[in-house]
Inverse folding.
């Protein structure tokens, strides 16, 4: 009986995992896909955003999936390599690599990240096990390279954004080795 249940669970799990790479098209600041694999991955782990019948991937999501060999990205008829896509992304977003290091680190730790432009931040981060739509994000994240200077006014502005959106402020500091150190800042009332 236990073997039969294990086989049923395995069959259900295998149905959810895309068997083929997602085929996405590069479009300036996003990548778009319409195939079943992209929908399956979205349902499973919330990569991308649903827009009509397509799924739109941010540049960091697309590079992450390209790195994990779960996606092929087409620019016209050419398939982009990791390096060629990275070069394009860096031209579009000058702070791209620092943002990507933080995205990759948190995503590999089991967190779901989504853009947070409307909150005035780079990303909003959902706690492990929480999917967007099920509950609110716990943090907003600002990726920063260790060599950048952050004034008290900039820090205060970031902290106010977090406080006004009822999220915790998380600074992701990326060093020269691409390791990320996180600092969580919260308002307290003495």
């Amino acid at each position: 009986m236990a073997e039969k249940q294990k086989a049923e669970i395995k069959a259900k799990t295998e149905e959810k995992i895309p068997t083929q790479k997602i085929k996405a098209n590069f479009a300036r600041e996003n990548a778009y896909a319409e195939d079943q694999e992209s929908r399956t991955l979205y349902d499973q782990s919330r990569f991308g955003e649903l827009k009509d019948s397509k799924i739109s991937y941010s540049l960091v999501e697309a590079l992450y999936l390209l790195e994990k060999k779960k996606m092929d990205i087409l620019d016209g008829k050419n398939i982009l390599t990791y390096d060629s896509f990275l070069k394009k992304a860096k031209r579009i977003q000058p702070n791209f690599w620092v943002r990507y290091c933080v995205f990759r680190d948190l995503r590999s730790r089991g967190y779901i990240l989504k853009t947070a432009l409307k909150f005035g931040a780079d990303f909003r981060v959902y706690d492990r096990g929480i999917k967007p739509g099920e509950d609110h994000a716990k943090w907003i994240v600002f990726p920063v390279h260790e060599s950048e200077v952050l004034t008290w006014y900039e820090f205060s502005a970031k902290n106010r954004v977090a406080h006004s959106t009822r999220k915790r402020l998380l600074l992701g500091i990326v060093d020269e080795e691409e390791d990320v150190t996180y600092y969580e800042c919260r308002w307290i009332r003495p």
Observations:
- The first helix runs from residue 2 to 16.
